[in-house]
Every structure is written in C-alpha cells, then in structure tokens.
Amino acid sequence: MRVKEVAELLSAEILYDEISNDERDFEHVVAADLMSEIMLDTAEQSLMVTGLINPQVIRTAELMDVYAVVFVRGKEVSAEVTELAKDRGITIMSVCQTMYETCGRLYEAGLTAGR
Known about the structure:
Helix content is 38%, strand content 20%.
C-alpha cells in the first residue's frame, strides 16, 4: 500500500509527502506512543502510527528506516516536527481517528503487525 492509498483509506491530511511518487509500499504497521516500543517491533516497510508528536518521533522513524508516520487523534503537528520530517525525507500525515481505529482500518486493508 502506498502513501496516497493510506491517506485515502484513513482520510488523512498529508502534512509533508516525500515519497508519494516513489515505488515503495507499506507491508506492515507499527503503532505505539513509546518510541522504545517502536524500536522493538519495527519491520522493514513499516508505517508508524503514533499519538506522540515531538521531534523524537521523526528521529526514531529515521533510525528504524520508517519512511512515513501517521499522527492520530487530530493533534496539531508543530513546525519543528514538520521541518525535521522534511529534512529527513519522512512523510507525515494526520488523522482525527484514534490509534485503535486507525490500526483497525490498516489491518482490514491487509497491512500486518510490524514484527
């Protein structure tokens, strides 16, 4: 599943898109608010889902080779986080749904857990 498909499925607002014209697909989802849990459960080609909105999220995504992050619960993403995502080439999206609902929709669409 590609970025535009994820955005359409989740009715997500794309805040910054580095890869929509890229050939990369997501196969897995990893979801947590603790970045230490993200670091334990992330497989290649994962999409990160989190309610945590700070620069550490982008740094963790970069470290784990995650190239897209979905922020849940309609939280406003700061300019600092957006600029860091641009600098690191990481796509970021925002949805109003809870993490539970977001992950459920992605699971129904065929994405699996990020392990």
